[in-house]
Amino acid sequence: MARNHHQEVLDGNIGFFWPIDANGQRLEADDQRGYIHLKEDGRIRLETLDENPILSFARQREDRVDRPDALLGSTASSSVLVLNLFGSRSTVNVGGYRASVRKYSARTLISRVDLENLSSICATGIEGEFFEVERWAQFEPSWEALKRDESGRLRRFSIELEPIIEQDSEIDSNRSLYLSSKWKVTGPSSRRTIYSPVVVGCRSNFPVPFSDLLNPVLAVQNLLSMAYGGFVSAAAGSAFLDCRTEPRASPFWTTPLMHTPAAVQSPRSMTHVPQFSLDMLGGVSGLANWVKLTDEHSRAVKPIVNQYRFGGYSPELKLMEVAAGIEYWVNASRRNCQWARVAPKSLALAEHVGHPFKSWIRYAEKWADIFWRRYGQLKHEPNYEPDIYEISVLADVGVHLLTAELLNFISDANKDPASRYFESPQMVSLKERIQSLLGGPGDD
User: What region holds the ApeA N-terminal domain (predicted)?
Assistant: First the structure.
């Protein structure tokens, strides 16, 4: 398949660049000549020549340096818009043999930008494209047919491609989330390449900051990572920028969606049955509910998704984080829900998830009691020496319990995803370890 423009740019490209504000207005009259590329850690790095170092030095002395909101560029491969800047610095050398250089770090690059008609750095839609998640989405973007002769030898193979009808659901009065598919066939007749990803997109009725559209897609990516047990990266993406003409799809790269962090594991297999599916959540409406939950109750969501963003950490920290998430969620529910008044809070949550969890673990009350006591000991007893294996198993159970609770919360009332969640093959090993650890309903 032909390489995308942004891939060519990120492999390393020279060009002219202009710092701009949020409205797309230049902050400086002169062009900056520079080199842009993607670093191994997923950061986009742009280094430009400062051809007026004396003026730059004076601005630094007087603290008159304008911090750009973004950068526009015209490179050898494509026009670009660089967003999500998180670092910039200058090295000023007046005289001598070293050039003055400005360095920018960013997380997002959009290519094929209509420079002449760009109205602002906002967007009206973005899409992330994911491979091998058809089982989770329960989409069939392609159908294959085989024909064999009497001896069983393959005589004919055919494949049929058809886009899936888009499914969408409202997030708020301006934004909606949607799921669809797209397909493309490239290459000569003797070597066809078929491209047929599942598309997760977010659109708005009027232009909004890029992050307002990216965050819902990242939230759905978190769900995919939970379902497959590892970071599920997007293969590509398209953005629809705020233009004075009809916006066109512009390919983009963004670090959190497409780069697997060094400390984070990828799924062991994308062909295995995922731990839960889109249907279990009630379809795209369940995804929209998940986005709202992430926005409104991030303290409950982060303990179960952070491992797919930042990697693992010690069992003690994991238990404390998930216990804090459970504590927050139960407290947030107390005003309107009687179940949240049970103590300890780990037991309140276990009772609320109910039979799926209690039949899986067998000793729910004992787990809840030990889990909450260990949480208190880790917080308040400096001389407490934890059993790392015990803490690890207790914490893993807490993560899955909170996950099941939140999946129940976002799904349709008649779906009950917790039942199928705890019945999944991925839960067998932990079930054996926790039942062995608890041993029986008595005290530890």
Answer: 14-290
